[in-house]
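WARN retry 2 of 3 for item q-0093 after timeout on previous attempt; input resubmitted unchanged.
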Amino acid sequence: MIDRKLKKLLLERLKVYPAVAIVGARQCGKTTLAKSIKGIYFDLEQESQRLSLDLQWDDIITDRKLIILDEAQSWPDIFPRLRGAIDSVKRKGKFLLLGSVSPSLMRHISESLAGRLSLVELTPLLLSELKTQASRKRRWLCGGYPDGGVLEPKRYPQWQIDYLTLLTQRDLPNWGLPAKPQMTMRLLRMLAALHGQIWNASQVGQSLGLSYNTVNSYLDYLEGAFLIRRLQPYRSNIKKRLIKSPKVYWQDSGLLHSLLNIPDENSLLTQPWVGASWEGFIIEQILGELAASGKNVDAYYLRTSDQYELDLVLDFGNELWAIKIKLTASPTPNDMNRLKKTSDMISASRCFLISRTRSSVGDRYEVSCNIETFIEQIHSNL
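OK item q-0093 returned
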């Protein structure tokens, strides 16, 4: 079993809160992580499991064991009972809920469990969680879903195709997305082509025959399902005209590559958009590490009208980090000089040029390094 970095944070939260919810994409490993913690497990998508929980309710809520409730959003009636049990038992670490984020899940949590529950987010497998060099090498191509090929190469890309088909035909409609599956799949393919680009809802809507507002509402569902990330622009008072629309990224590179019919890394490296793919992959590794650590940080990008750009701006509150991502093994001094000039525009406290270089150069404030070294920098800063 792969040790998940989120487990430490999860155990810490269970010591403080009566209930904790692990949210994240379907099949990212929530159930496996929960079962690694001893408790009484119920799958609430199964009618028999709901009945079993109902019949045992009075006994198990007084038991000291942790109660694990999987796919909690599928049984809305459980939330008022949870609130009553939490208020009456008053015990830390009593309930662990698992669920894919949907409007109904978040509504029930906010209505019934506000102040009683802590949310933690589990991502697909992070690069730093993989134990072998072969699996780490596959991570960019195949993505991070445990069953999606990163551990067993032959499963990519068919697993991703089946996964997206199930989401479009069952899960997303069940969560309230009003689009037909064929329309959702068209939108997913269009978003794959737009990966790493500035979001233009009007342009996408015209291509699909939908309104600006409808396209944005559909994107809300895809973001809530942990498929898409909208990276917001950094607001600054610099004396330059800034791009003010968000950028869109696929959160999992394997899903992106399957939609774009990429069979292997050699094919990937020949694509004109390979730099955008690498950029999104690195951004998700960084944000995934921060989520697993429980660190509160705001993430943005910056682009000026004259093409000065930061791929990622991390606002830690007391520090501002400027990050440029480049798919090369040999970054040049000009790359670092342009990064420094751009980071100075926003008075960043540290700047990083992340590439595939094997060596790290620079000092505490200006660093050229690979993603592994950058992750070490994150954890030394926490």
